[in-house]
Structures are given as C-alpha cells and as structure tokens.
Write a structure and sequence with these properties.
The structure is a single chain. It is built from five helices and 14 strands. By secondary structure, it is α+β, with helices and mostly antiparallel strands. α1 packs antiparallel against α2. The radius of gyration is 20 Å and the shape is globular.
C-alpha cells in the first residue's frame, strides 16, 4: 500500500517535523497508548522555532537549558534571545518551559506556568533596565504565550486574558488556525522586545505595558526580521476576504486566507472606504483585499 503523501499543517512543514509532532502529541493518552516525554516536547519546539519561525534569522538565538539569571541554579528548557541594538549583546526575549504530563489537569498546568513565571520574575528582577519579558508554556504539542510586566504577580496571556491553568487556551502547533495565533504572539514579541532590537528603527518600537507607543505593523520590516517577505502590491480588482479578529489591548489582529496562505495584519493597516452600493468596507492596500465590518 502506498504511503500517504505528507501535507504541511500548522508549523509542521516537513515529514521530519511530522514524526516529532506525533511523538510529542498526547492526544491518544485517554486510549492508553501514548506517554510523551518532556524531552520530546523540547525537541519539537526547538526545531519549530529554529527551522520554521526564525529560520534564516541571524539576530535571534534559540538555546536550551539556560538560567534565568547568571547566579541561578535553575535552567529553563528553551530560551529565545534577540540581538540588542548597538551593543550586539543578546537579551532574553522569551522563556519556554515544557513539562511531561499524561493529563491536562489544572494542577499540571499550574506547575508549568508557575515555573515559567519564576524564571520571568527572576530575570526582570536581575536588571533595573528591564520592564517586561515574554514566556511560552508547553505540554505535548500544545503551547500558550504570555507576557509579564515587572512587579506583576501573574502572567497576562496573549489570548484568553490571565486565565491560568486553562487547557482550552493551549494551542496545537499542528493546527493551522492555532499556529497563526501563536505566530501572531511571536511576531508581537519580536516587534516589541524588552529593549531595542538590532535593525529595528526607533519609530517601530513601542510599549505594550504602559499603553504607549504605536502598535507593531503586521507586514514590512518586523515580519522581514522573522524570515518572511513583505507582499508585493497586488494588481487587479480587490478581493473579498473573511478575516478572523483577535482582540489585543485597544486594537485587533486580523488573520485571513489569501491564495491558500494565511495572512496577518493589524487593524490600523485597514482603511475605511465606501462601496458602490453605499456600504462601508475595510480595505487593505498591500494585499488588495477588503471585508465588510
């Protein structure tokens, strides 16, 4: 019998990642046939961040077993670091903590989130120049993204609000819609790092923790830093799309499908126009698409 042809899904874009994804995934636990190990989740996520999300980006580094601060005896499973502007030193962008578990009880989730929170708190307290840092917590092939402001006692999720230990807020890296949401969070982190990032214009840097500064754009220089390219100006009549809107602070992040690919934008990139029938529509000039609010 012929082997089924591999089809990319979510962040799983090669047969090799598919094998790692299936090994780390514990969706079959309740049938008693799977028992993923923590190391399998770490391996999967390291490869997704290295070979998919930040592929080709020489200013971002992914390392395992890194302490939250130099004197700590603890080590986080995975740490994403970015290159700081002018100094060329690397700074922590995001701590990623993974745990082995056979079930998704509140206690299991509390433990992995508590550990990540401790790493973030220790890191922020180690440097007076830092005010915010990011984190991801992962179990199996599911992940949730967070941010922590110095002085806060709890994370705020990039989606789902604070809601700690909420399994329904963990997203599957192999599901297209979930992967788009995760990528949005990572895009936001790299666009608004704790300090200025190498190659980042000062006008493109803002503050998410003080409610000041402009929101990061969904296309252009920030996305190019993630290894993607700014789309070329489209030619021809605009096409209608049906974006999914994700609230964030006082704005929205819009994800839609175009020519079989997922696109992501900030609400501020859309302009209001009047259609021939008098209805108002939202238009995106770069992608040459529109939707009716």
């Amino acid at each position: 019998m012929a082997t089924p042809k591999f089809q990319p899904h979510g962040f799983i874009d090669t047969p090799q990642l598919e094998v790692q994804y299936r090994t780390a995934h514990f969706s079959n636990y309740h049938r008693g046939i799977h028992d993923p190990k923590e190391a399998q989740t770490v391996k999967l996520l390291e490869n997704i961040f290295n070979k998919v999300i930040f592929f080709g980006n020489k200013d971002v580094f992914i390392n395992s077993q890194q302490p939250p601060e130099i004197n700590s005896r603890k080590a986080c499973d995975i740490v994403i670091e970015y290159t700081e502007s002018e100094t060329f030193h690397t700074r922590v962008l995001c701590f990623i903590e993974c745990k082995r578990t056979k079930k998704t009880t509140g206690y299991d989730l509390e433990q992995v989130e508590k550990q990540a929170l401790e790493y973030c708190t220790a890191y922020l307290e180690s440097d007076d120049n830092l005010s915010v840092v990011y984190a991801c917590t992962a179990i199996g092939a599911h992940i949730r993204c967070w941010r922590l402001v110095k002085g806060d006692k709890a994370f705020l999720g990039f989606w789902g609000g604070p809601s700690p230990a909420a399994w329904d807020q963990y997203k599957d890296v192999g599901v297209d819609a979930d992967a788009a949401l995760i990528r949005w969070a990572i895009d936001y982190m790299i666009a608004l790092p704790p300090t200025g990032r190498e190659g980042q214009a000062i006008e493109d840097y803002g503050s998410i923790y003080a409610g000041q500064g402009k929101q990061p754009a969904g296309s252009g220089s920030q996305n190019q830093s993630l290894g993607t390219q700014q789309p070329a100006q489209a030619i021809g009549p605009p096409r209608e799309v049906a974006p999914t809107m994700y609230p964030f602070n006082d704005t929205y992040y819009l994800i839609f499908s175009l020519d079989g690919e997922q696109k992501s934008t900030w609400q501020s990139e859309w302009s209001s126009k009047e259609a021939s029938d008098g209805r108002l529509l939202a238009y995106h000039a770069v992608y040459n698409v529109f939707y009716y609010p």
